[in-house]
Write a structure and sequence with these properties.
Blueprint: H1 3-13, E1 56-59, E2 63-69, E3 73-82, E4 88-95, E5 102-105, E6 112-114, E7 119-127, E8 134-142, E9 149-159, E10 168-172, E11 180-184, E12 195-197, E13 205-211, E14 220-225, E15 231-236, E16 240-246, E17 251-257, E18 266-271, E19 277-282, E20 288-295, E21 305-308, E22 323-328, E23 336-341, E24 353-358, E25 364-368, E26 377-381, E27 390-394, E28 396-397, E29 400-401, E30 406-410, E31 427-430, E32 439-445, E33 456-463, E34 469-474
Parallel strand pairs: 2-9
Antiparallel strand pairs: 1-3, 3-7, 4-6, 4-8, 5-7, 8-9, 10-11, 11-12, 13-14, 14-15, 15-16, 17-18, 18-19, 19-20, 21-22, 22-23, 23-24, 25-26, 26-27, 27-30, 28-29, 31-32, 32-33, 33-34
Length: 492
Amino acid sequence: MTGHRLAWLAALAAGCIENAFVPDEPKATSGDTAGPLPFADTALPPEADDPAPPDIAVDPPAVAFSWVDVGDTAVQALEVANVGDGPLDLGAVAWDAPVAAFQLVAPVGLPVELAPGESLSFDVVYTATGLDGAEGLLHVETDDPDEPVVDVPVTADACEEDPPEGPFVVGPALDDTNRVSLLAWDGAGGFSSPDHEGDDGSGAWRGLVEADFDGDGLWEVVSRRERSHDLVFLSWSCGWHTTVLDENLPYTPEGGGDLDGDGDVDLYGYSDDHDEGWVGLDQGDGTFIHLGDAFDPDPTWSGYALKMAYHAGDIDEDGVPDLVAADYDSPGDDVSRIWLYRGVGDGTFEEPEQVGTIPTPVNGLDILDLDGDGHLDVLGGLDDDGDAGVMFVMWGTAGGLAEEAETWYDQAPGFEVGTNHPGGGYLRGYDWDGDGTPDVLTTYDLDPYGGSPRDLLLLWHAVASDGSHDASWALDPPGAMRYGNFAVPVEP
């Protein structure tokens, strides 16, 4: 009996094989040699596995051009990717019907095979030839077994309205802080009547910062809305439009500057509980990468008030922008401590160092070269208590700041003692008239704890060649903004 048959019978006896048919041992015939059946030790070939399928992904699922000026051309990217495990045959990306205003630019000739994880980016081009806009439909054809054809709607709106000349002063609207006022510089020492961005239910505008964030040559505003906590982007495209950049962001922008040296204006601020110092690194298109631990505000947070200078600046003159902050312990005539965060160059900062004091609480704070000596100065003050409305300067020195602050200007000389007086406000420095000397804009609260809304004046402060205060005047239109934070341009 062969070994194969013995093994089989042994397994049967052990109960490992049930209801088995055991064939008789074949008998040898003349010329044959007894042995196992020809199939006894031969395994059946395995069944072939199905090939791994591809899986198409198209981003965005719809292309929309919003308010393109007549005569202008706009481009958006359409990405086709293979997110499956097998190769994807991309046969065609084509219009359902030709639309004169649209073009599709492919990076390579089709058809083409996309390996798993590979993608192609197509340019969808819109030329606004009239005010009617345009609509079209793209078909993306592949061998995806589940989605052999993906349809991508393409729409466009056109307009014939020129953008307003900027830059702007931007602040909460006087009649409703859920709206924002934009006052355009008129090039002749004044500002236009305000445009208003309407309320969308997201709450007041907090932490306003103005810059050309997306590189289109126009000024935009980034802010955090009080009710929704969304980081929003206010931009011009045939009118002012607000888009949400990040929902429920736990940080409020306090100012801006090129913090990582890439030529874009980045944002900085701190978390609601003051535990984290935040930086938003602009990617050049008006979107931001968030660094939630870029600096440590805790040593500078007294538990009552923390203010940050609106512009970043290279205080220590090492070629990297720094941040300046002020804190104080309570209202009244408390001294404000001035802190320096030395920049590392990648959007992060060293531990803060106290570099001086200002003798009153600080509401407004900024970095600017007042006297044109090449060293950045710090201007701050504008409390409504004690000697209300006073601004102080810490003059810049080679690689730092003078520790002693000097009085720069008192915009409310009639209020020298007491609390809650007119004259308090915020300040921002910017060279509006392009003469090489920074100008200082401040708000002047007319009635700090009076009726609502709290009206204010917008004051222009001219700076003398030696950095001292030269003259001040109220700007038209008065009362265009409510008391509160406001924005002026930030440049890289």
